[in-house]
Amino acid sequence: MPQLSDLPPYPLGQVLEVKKKRVTDAEQVVKEKQSALEVEQEKLKKREEERDAVKKHYEEKLLQLRHEYDTGTTSRKIDQAKLYIKVVQERLRVEEKKVADQKAQVEVAEKNLELAKNQLKQRQKEQDKIEVHKKEWIKETLVELAVIETRAEDELGSLMFLSKYTQNKAQVKKDVKREEE
Prior knowledge:
Blueprint: H1 13-71, H2 75-180
């Protein structure tokens, strides 16, 4: 019975190695995209914290302005507070835009990660197909080698039988000649 070591080299061995390398590369890309996504999410967190700090400051200044109205301060102080609140409002708009822009960056990073994962799955499928083919090829080749080995054994057996048969026949002829003499 033939062994795995008796098999000839797999004809698609190089293709299989290329497919394995592509899977490894795709796994690396997924890791990189995951890292990029994490970086973008961290940036988003920072942007949101900065926005929240400005928002809190804005709300505090609004409360302070209301308090000024309630206590009845001079109109000059109220005008200054209103101007300052407008400046803080503008800063808040800027921070909101930064958060929105960063959210867009996070979405892009998520899409890139998803694309990389899909590509990895596709490449894994390709590798799996080649590996399944290799298993089938091994089975078929082992069967073919077994058939060839069986034929060779049958031929050898036939040759041995014919050799012994002809030797026996020759011996019988010799014995018959000796008896006749």
